[in-house]
Amino acid sequence: MKTVEDLLRQEYFEQFEQLVADTRPTLDIANLARVLDVTNGVAQITGFSSLGADELVTFADGTLGMASNIGAQRTGVIVLGATDRIFPGDRVTRTGRVAETPVGKALLGRVVDPLGRPLDRGMPPRTDEHLPVERPAPPIIHRAPVTTPLQTGIKAIDAAIPIGRGQRELILGDRQTGKTSIALGAILNQRDTGVISIYCAIGQRASGVARVIQELRAHGALERTIVVVAGGQEAPGLQFIAPYAATSMAEYFMQQGRDTLIVYDDLTRHARAYRELSLLLRRPPGREAYPGDIFHIHARLLERATQLRSDLGGGSLTALPIIETQARNISDYIPTNLISITDGQIYVSSRLFDKGQLPAVDIGASVSRVGGRTQLPAYRTVAGDLRLFYAQYEELETFARFGTQTDTATQTTLTRGRRVRAALRQNEFDLLDVPSQIAILLAATTGVLDHIPVDQVADAVRRAADAARTACAPILQSILDGDPLKPLERDRLVQAMTEALQTPPHGKDAG
Question: Which of 36, 102, 174, 378 could be 127's S-S partner, Cβ–Cβ 3.0 to 4.6 Å?
Answer without folding.
Answer: 102
